[in-house]
Structure formats: structure tokens, C-alpha cells
Amino acid sequence: MREFVFALEYEPGTDSVADVLEAYPAATIRSLSCHVTPESLWRVDHATGSQEALEALERAYETPAYCADCLVKDDCGADCETEVLDRSADTLVVYTYWERTDACTSVPHVALEHLGEGLLFETDRERRRYRWRIVLPSETPVYTFFDALGEEVGECAGMEMLRLTELDPERTSDEREDLPEEQRRALHAAVEHGYYETPRRTDLSELADTLAVPRSTLSYRLRRAEAALATAFVEADALESLAATR
User: Structure pTM?
Assistant: First the structure.
């Protein structure tokens, strides 16, 4: 089995959920499940963020024109069902289902048409970036799929191929993804706001307020990210030293 990872970057005004995530940078969405048939698509998404961000996301999901993952920007005539499965102060779980019309298309439908059945989909979203991970048989060609997807996406979003590798069951999910999204955002914010400068321009409490996360959560994410980066640096340095002695 292989994993194919790519990302879409939506232009402003082309995707209501991406517009909300751009307005609330600390909010994220990851898929709990995503399933497709030639006639339909259904999925469950888990969103986290501030109460204000989740309220805005819920309104975006409930917009009549919203149809999960549909790449058709005009009215495609699909019947879309959206239901909130769970709602708390910092969590929103949403189920969506729609039946396809002749005009409808989506990333999973293009994948089904070009890569075949038996695919596993995993997604995460932050700001305008929508990252897809597809697990598929090793012999399946992906470049025709990626070209076809580019034609369907058109000018609505940029596309970036991130990785095509054999799936290694010995590796953990953290090793497959250099850093989890939450840790990456924490590091980016820490650098941007001067947390690592001497003297610091912000402290941990102020940075946690900026990201709208508990101080203890931010501290944990930064420690995990720093440990992963330090380990990767030492391992890479050891490999370079070993190669130099040969």
C-alpha cells in the first residue's frame, strides 16, 4: 500500500469553510470518516477552535449552497444533508451527506473514477489549506488522477503534491507527518510572536491567549515539537557524519 498526500489552497470566496478558517486561524478541521460511491458522498468532520469560530463554522455548514467537498461552484442541484452530531465549547462534530447529480464532482469522486475502489481518505484543514491523504494499492497510478483533479479544481484552488510513498506500518503517524498540525501552528506562532527571541517579546500565557488554547496545552505542543525537531536534527547529523567517514 502507498500513501498519496496533496493539498488544495482555496482562493478567497470560493469555499465558505475555508473563508471561516482564514478568519479564525486557530480553528482546525479533521475528518473522522469519509466515504464515497459513484452516486453519493458522506463524511464526519471534527472541528476545534474558539466558540466564536465554531459558531461561524456551523453557519457555514448550514448554508444552503454548502455541499461537502463538491468542486462545482454553480448550483449543481444536489440534495445535501447536514447534521451536528456533537457540540461543546471547543468542539464541533458534523455529519454531511449528498447524492450526486450529473454536474457534481469532488476529490473522492475523482479518486474513485481514476484510482478505483478500496481507497482510504484522511483530511485536515487549517486556514485556506486543505490537506488530503489517500491510502491506495501500490500499483495504482496517481498522476492521471492528479491531472484530472487539477482540471476539476480549475481556478478555485492551488494544488500541491506533498508526498507519494510506500506505507510503512512500523512508523507512527507522527513520523509519517513531520509534525502534527497543532504542533506546527504552535511553532509558527511562537516564532512569529518572538517567543524564542532573547529577550522574549511574548511569554507562554500571552501566546496561549493569542492561539485561544489553554497554557498547558500550548506548553505540551511546543515541548513535543521541540523534542521531535531535536531528535530529527541529531539523527540527520549522525547520518551525515557516518557518510563522511565512508
Answer: 0.67
